[in-house]
Amino acid sequence: QSALTQPRSVSGSPGQSVTISCTGTSSDVGRYNYVSWYQHYPGKAPKLIIYDVTKRPSGVPDRFSGSKSGNTASLTISGLQAEDEADYSCYSYAGSYTFYVFGTGTKVTVL
Amino acid sequence: QVQLQESGPGLVKPSETLSLTCSVSGGSINNYYGSWIRQPPGKGLEWIGYIYYTGSTNYNPSLKGRVTLSVDTSRNQFSLRLNSVSAADTAVYYCARAFSPERLENWGQGSLVTVSS
Questions:
Q1: How far away is chain A from the Cα of B58, in angstroms, using its nearest Cα?
Q2: Is the confidence at residue B96, as pLDDT, over 90?
Q3: Residue B20's Cα: distance from chain center in Å?
Q4: A45 and B45: CB-CB below 8 Å?
């Protein structure tokens, strides 16, 4: 089972919006609404920021939003802030054989 | 606040067994799943498997046969064993607690394990 495909890096200026794509197949992202997104800083514990494609856990700013179209899920960060500079990974259920697969990871840089 | 901490040897010899424990504080593991994830240097995250507090497990097919997860509810811990390791198993290993394995709600900071003689 291959990893979900994410761009290696995206960048934006403070206040701008950036979108990270997460492309899978009809066996994972396209079939199930179980895509989640994680923010992680080097040396720190990753943090859940989106689950079930669009839902935000309590305490996560509404600047973070998720969506899905076909086999591609997306994370959008609106009103980019300096503290958003981190790595972001998507994660999807992939059925009862493969179970779960992560994305390749995206580095967000705030210019 | 729930905290998870991975512990175990940072260096393992090739062909030997990697063992890590995840200790959970500030919350119970009862009714939760314990998942293990790893990140090789310069690469993305990889799901290893999960164990429910009852002991039921599911594993990444690419690792099946080498990995065993266990749980100790009395100690609020769950553990990972990966046998016959090679340099390809060098990674930061994370544990995570989840009410549902589709969303990994609480993570440890990770433990770097290097496989080298």
A1: 8
A2: yes
A3: 7
A4: no
